[in-house]
Design a protein that fits this description.
The structure holds 2 protein chains of 2 kinds. By secondary structure, chain A is mostly helical. Helix content of chain A is 72%, strand content 0%. Classes of the chains: A mainly alpha, B mainly alpha.
Chain lengths: 206, 290
């Protein structure tokens, strides 16, 4: 049981590393990008986007759920990073700073369009899959997806930061501009919620 | 770190080798954590699969650069400034507003009762200095760290706060001066205002700059010291006088506080220094980040 968990874990770790591409950019390269932006080197913006654009856009999309808005937020993030590069103090990782700007921009946009940040939709959509397709493993994946969709933006944000962006709990708190305890309680709530969704679906599936 | 957190970090691949080995020992005998791990692994798989499938929009960096080349319009600038003022006025220490008003009101009452307008000259700079010294101090403002990590540059945040609090202090002192018209003829209102305006602005500029440099409490102590030293009774000092030049120094110092133009010019210089101080790029090389 444990060894299979570890095998899965390692596989998963590799996939994050490849997908998110953060193993390629070291702290020195990050600081170099910032210094070049401070020195008005426009190529630094292109390199910054090449290194982190996908992750920034993915996070913006996770928060806003709207590709056009996510694009605007990502673009704003590049402009803000350029204009405020000199305020980056190099105390944390560049990606956490950038994700913080994305978070701030996305939440501001959501507030303006008065989309609910905290509303949690408890209803689970009906299944359209045929009985043959309803192998439990596949179903579980679908239920997890449903569970994630019915979480609030703030809860999804924490999960995305930790499981895709590879941030520590402290960094996630920094990005969300909230105390560490809030990140922990959001994780705890997400766990309860996902568990609830899974067990309700498992009961109705039987 | 409890197991509930450990299992999340384990699933996210964020545990160190030691922590991982330790946690796996626990995991082998804990069905609850095993169930949690399955849940978090499915979640992690789902999240990373959907996020890594998202393609980064093409040409976004070029579009951002186009915007970077555009000069910011005046209207947008004014709107941003207004938003910044609104946000900052909500964040500034709440206790500051009633506290400053109360001390200034007390000053006006004492001046009225004692029939001494000088009391308002005495109190206004003290109120202003204290309120500006707490403006940028993490000990008095837990939201400051957050404010400074937002995209607005720190010097703009400082300028916004400075404007709000100085405007408020100015209004309080003006209100107190109008109250004092009960004991002062109206034609002396200008003289009355000039009496506190210079010292108030200069002392608050000193307090602000010092607070950025050596912390709020020290800044208040030094600013108050600078202000109060001119009120030491001359005859008392005379008793301890070491050199005969001492009295002329005291006299020059008192006159300095009574020269509004000089004080206002120096204040502008000090406020500029404080803003520069807040805007300095600080590059501390990232060592052991993560």
């Amino acid at each position: 049981m444990v060894s299979s968990a570890i095998a899965k874990q390692t596989l998963h770790g590799q996939r994050i590393a490849q997908g998110a591409n953060y193993s390629m950019t070291s702290d020195e390269q990050d600081l170099d990008l910032i210094r070049r932006m401070v020195a008005d080197d426009e190529n630094a913006v292109r390199e910054l986007y090449a290194a982190y654009g996908q992750r920034l856009y993915a996070y913006a999309l996770r928060l806003t759920n709207d590709p056009a808005v996510a694009e605007d937020v990502t673009q704003d993030t590049l402009v803000t990073a350029w204009r405020t590069a000199r305020t980056f103090r190099g105390e944390g990782r560049l990606i956490a700073w950038l994700l913080g700007i994305v978070h701030h921009g996305a939440i501001k946009t959501l507030r303006h369009t008065s989309q609910p940040l905290e509303a949690v939709e408890e209803t689970i959509p009906e299944t359209n899959a045929s009985p043959e397709e309803q192998a439990q493993a596949g179903e579980m994946k679908r239920w997890v997806r449903q569970g994630l969709q019915s979480l609030s933006t703030e809860h999804r944000a924490v999960l995305e930061l930790i499981f895709y962006q590879g941030l520590s709990l402290n960094e996630a708190a920094e990005v969300c501009k909230c105390p560490l305890g809030t990140v922990k309680s959001r994780l705890s709530y997400a766990r309860q919620h996902l568990r609830g969704v899974l067990s309700r679906n498992e009961e109705s599936w039987r | 770190m409890n197991h509930e957190e450990q299992v999340v970090l384990y699933a996210a691949g964020r545990l160190s080798k030691n922590e991982r080995v330790h946690f796996e020992e626990h995991l082998a005998g804990c069905p609850g954590c095993q169930a949690d791990l399955r849940l978090w692994q499915m979640t992690a798989d789902e999240i990373s699969a959907s996020s890594s499938a998202v393609p980064a929009p093409v040409q976004l960096a070029e579009r951002a650069l186009e915007r970077i080349h555009q000069p910011a319009s005046l209207q947008a600038g004014v709107r941003r400034a207004w938003q910044l003022l609104q946000i900052q006025s909500q964040i500034i220490q709440r206790e500051m507003w009633p506290a400053s008003a109360a001390v200034m009101a007390l000053g006006a009452i004492v001046a009225l009762v004692a029939n001494h307008v000088e009391f308002i000259y005495f109190i206004a700079p003290l109120v202003a200095a204290a309120s500006l010294a707490i403006l940028c101090s993490p000990e008095y403002d837990p939201a400051l760290e957050l404010t400074l990590s937002t995209p607005t540059s720190p010097w703009k945040v400082l300028l916004a706060r400075l404007s709000i609090v100085s405007g408020y202090n100015l209004l309080l002192a003006l209100a107190a001066s109008f109250v004092l018209l009960v004991i002062v003829p109206p034609e002396l209102l200008g003289t009355l205002i000039l009496g506190w305006l210079g010292p108030m602005t200069f002392l608050s500029a000193v307090a602000l700059l010092l607070s950025l440099w050596i912390g709020t409490s020290n800044a208040i102590a030094i600013a108050y010291g600078l202000w109060l030293v001119q009120y030491i009774p001359y005859r008392l000092v005379g008793a301890w006088m070491i050199s005969p030049g001492w009295s002329s120094i005291i006299l020059a110092y008192q006159q300095f506080w009574q020269s509004p133009t000089l004080l206002l010019l120096l204040s502008i210089l000090l406020f500029g220094l404080a803003l520069w101080f807040a805007s300095r790029p600080v590059f501390r090389l990232a060592q052991g980040t993560g």
